[in-house]
Design a protein that fits this description.
5-stranded parallel beta sheet; 5-stranded mixed beta sheet; 252 residues
């Protein structure tokens, strides 16, 4: 562990670290991320009610007994539609209380590592803490391997060639916009599938890209699933799932 700490660098007092923990396989953690998980005073993470927390699960091999941890449990996830005013109020209040809790730890001189699946600045909840605390305390963001990078690698799908344009889309968009965006780009990644999976599959089909598209579930993890989207019959994609449409580019 001392060699890892020498290479990765230890944690500084009163500093918040947004630690990207990668796509799922703990072996894809960066040296900096692993070193900080071992050295921060507090390991903090988000979790859904009744769940252990995805990021916390990824780094479990590095968590020693007796480590100080702080669990931040979302008040809502999919129970209320995002456009419902109650959702916004509940989540905003949650982030404000969380920022206050983290701020108190940092003011007391503790170093805190807030875990984030993939990369903290890519659809990460950590960004809400960064925005609230970046002018109040020292904050360092530790980049991580994105989930989409892990997924296109595991699906053996080089995503961009030459001058290919890559578009990243949330599956929550309406079907017409998804179709237009997929049709207009060379390569695409569609995230946030959930109950939107079949809608996204229809959009990919109408855009004429079904033959190219891959469905990846829990990429890089022990129970990963990779198959052509055309063969995907499930009606709902779990949290760790996405659709990969590789570009074709100019072949040399």
């Amino acid at each position: 562990m001392s060699v890892l700490n020498d290479i990765a660098g230890g944690a500084m007092p009163g500093t918040l670290y947004g630690i990207g923990v990668g796509p799922g396989d703990p072996r894809y953690l960066t040296l900096r991320a692993a070193g900080l998980i071992l050295s921060v005073d507090v390991v903090a993470y988000f979790a859904k009610s009744g769940r252990p927390g995805n990021a916390r699960t990824i780094v479990a091999p590095l968590i020693q007994p007796g480590r100080e941890e702080k669990r931040f449990e979302y008040p809502v996830t999919e129970e209320i539609p995002v456009k419902d005013a109650r959702y916004g109020h509940s989540i905003t209040s949650f982030y404000a209380e969380m920022a206050a809790d983290l701020g108190a730890m940092l003011a007391a001189g503790k170093s805190v590592g807030l875990l984030s699946e993939g990369d903290p600045f890519f659809y990460g909840s950590f960004m809400h803490m960064w925005r609230r605390l970046k002018n109040e305390a020292a904050v360092e963001v530790v980049p991580g391997v994105t989930g989409m990078s892990g997924c296109w690698t595991r699906s053996q799908a080089p995503i961009t060639w030459g001058d290919d344009i890559l578009t990243v889309l949330p599956g929550t968009l309406d079907e017409e916009r998804l179709t237009q965006r997929i049709r207009a780009t060379d390569a695409a990644v569609v995230m946030k599938l959930g109950r939107n999976l079949q809608k996204v599959k229809r959009a990919v089909t109408v855009a004429g890209r079904l033959a190219d598209a891959m469905y990846v579930e829990r990429g890089t993890m022990a129970d990963e699933k990779v198959l052509p989207l055309s063969e995907c019959e499930t009606g709902r994609g779990p949290y760790f799932s996405m659709i990969i449409i590789p570009g074709q580019g100019r072949r040399l």
